[in-house]
Amino acid sequence: MADEMKDPAQRRFEALRGARRLLSGQRPQTLREGLAGLAEAPYPLDSRPDVYGDGVVEELERKVAGLLGKEAAAFFPTGTMAQQAALRCWAELTGDRTVAMHPLAHPEVHERFAYAQLSGLRSVWPTSARRIATADEVADFAEPFGTLMLELPLRDAGFVLPSWEELVAVVGAARERDAVVHVDGARLWETAPHFGRPLTEIADLADSVYVSFYKTLGGISGAAVAGPEGFVAQAKTWRHRYGGQLYQQWPAALAALAGIDRELPRLDAYTAHAKVVAAALAEALAGVPGARVFPEPPHTHQFQLWLPFAADDLTEAGLRLAEEDGTALFGWWAEPGLPGLSCTEVTVAGPALEWTAADVREAVGRLLARL
């Protein structure tokens, strides 16, 4: 009972910290460990701190522009602000305030409709299927739009991606309509193994790209928008207007540089092992009606797992497994659709590489026994 009375976030933090094995995500750090990790960044720590975006922040911007093959990049304190600025800039440059996106895209689900409330933009949906729109859906869509926004991968649909040929075709369809293409690439870093292309070639399809530094890379916070120099300069103007011109941002910038160095080289291994983990989960849950891994196989190192149990029961069983057995399988569960049908997101990162398929199957059996 004492464990159940704790603050839920603190209890989960302690359970994951104390677990011997962790399947999904990275082991959480204390504040002291986070501070020590900043020293891993490939940047001289004897340098002066940044002031209003110079110094280490400019170094990070140059690094991101190079990785994505773009002329310039701008650092933002949050992805929501970055998306807001990017879409607003394209609306001004194209003269069209309509953005074609997916109803499960991040601005629709997780940003409180900032694009509409703050910038007066409107969205249209070429498709509502759990995938990005096809070239035909974009080409034949009845309403005009100035910007096509593609979320790669589409997180709330299950971290799904099109094939490379489908992506090229949908971008081409937007170009035929004289629309610009903006990629919500919060997790773009992890798409290269699926597409079999370098990041520069993927980003080259778009006029602008947004990337996150804490998703995939494990940074503290922050994001960047990359694109043509003039567009990025305009985005920086809106960054200032939206309150994103912070006096110092060196902790976030250092953590981002460290994450780029540490995590980018590992993503191929993470994605390959995600297929092993997903297959083992599907096998372990084959006898549970309604259980599903989606997509199978995963398109990135992240995927969804659906189980026919209440979210609170699954979360409690998982915490008990971590506290009593030292085995942490999943994070929080939610019921995004029918009550009693719950979903969690599985992220295969460094700790999961130690797990064999047999380890996964055995641990899932112990979780089910606690339900």
UniProtKB/TrEMBL annotation:
Belongs to the threonine aldolase family. Signal peptide: none annotated. Its cofactor is pyridoxal 5'-phosphate. Residues 52-284 form the Aromatic amino acid beta-eliminating lyase/threonine aldolase domain. Coiled coil: none annotated. This is Low specificity L-threonine aldolase. It comes from Streptacidiphilus cavernicola. Keywords: Pyridoxal phosphate. Pfam families: Beta_elim_lyase. It comes from the Bacteria.
